[in-house]
Design brief:
The chain has a domain of 44 residues. 34% of the residues lie in helices and 0% in strands.
């Protein structure tokens, strides 16, 4: 999905710096997951200084496209047992 036929920018991704909560809402994950991605380098911070955390939307797009090309998620056989591939 794109904003218009001449652009390749996805409609679901705003073109502004995003907060942790913005990314969590867009990707439907917990904010702690987004913070973990930032801490381990999968999602780079935009340089703002101080403790403010913002992420460029392009970085979110790269993360999403990279995850789509990886192997499928592991399935759960039973919630009380360990998962298997």
């Amino acid at each position: 999905m794109t904003a218009n036929s001449g652009s390749s920018w996805p409609v679901w991704l705003p073109q502004r710096l995003l907060t942790v909560d913005d990314i969590a809402e867009i990707l439907r994950v917990d904010a702690r997951t987004v913070r973990r991605w930032i801490a381990d380098g999968r999602l780079p911070r935009a340089p703002l200084g101080g403790r403010s955390v913002r992420v460029r939307p392009e970085a979110v797009l790269v993360l999403v496209e990279g995850q789509a090309s990886t192997k499928p998620m592991k399935k759960y056989r039973n919630t009380r047992r360990a998962y298997y591939s």
